[in-house]
Amino acid sequence: MLNGVMVEYYGTTVPIEQTANIGCTDARMIVVQPFDKSALNNIAKAILNANLGFNPINNGEILRIAVPALTEERRRDLVKRTKTAAEEAKVGIRGIRRNANDDAKKLEKDVISEDESKLLQEEIQKLTDKYIKKIDDLTELKSKDILTV
């Protein structure tokens, strides 16, 4: 749940996993124990700034985060985040496709024929379509899972 939270740690920004141990005491409580207690306030600030809907409680040694019950509004927000993450993944796949097509065109000049290049580009497009569809299917499945009570 805290994946992606970035913490200002000794002048650099690092993932929270590199600054603290993160665990759960029960289904509704996350405990964050920093490796260095002087970073406790920075970790708490990073969690608040991440807009995850969490309010960390600082007791001087660890942070306790009570995970709120999922309301309808929170569920919709999670679905929106899921769709955003899916769109970012699709953009990444399209970038990989563009690079692969560029490589195929470079090979066409030196190593392979124009027909082989076209076949290679068609295969790249098939793979792109396959993984875009997989992302769409998983996004739909996860969205349904989040919205069901």
Structure, described:
The protein has helices spanning 40-49, 72-110, 114-147, and strands at 6-9, 12-15, 20-26, 29-34, 57-58, 63-66. It is of the alpha+beta class and 149 residues long. The strands form two sheets. Strands 3-4-6-5 form a four-stranded antiparallel beta sheet, covered by helices on one side. A two-stranded antiparallel sheet has the order 1-2. Strand 3 and strand 4 form a beta hairpin. It is elongated, with a radius of gyration of 22 Å.
Structural class: alpha+beta
Shape, please?
Answer: elongated
Q: What is the radius of gyration? A: 22 Å
Order of strands in the sheet with the most strands? 3-4-6-5
How many distinct beta strands? 6
Tell me the number of helical segments per DSSP (H or I, 4 or more residues long). Answer: 3
Helix content: 55-70%
Q: Let me know the largest β-sheet.
A: 4 strands, antiparallel
Output mean pLDDT: 90
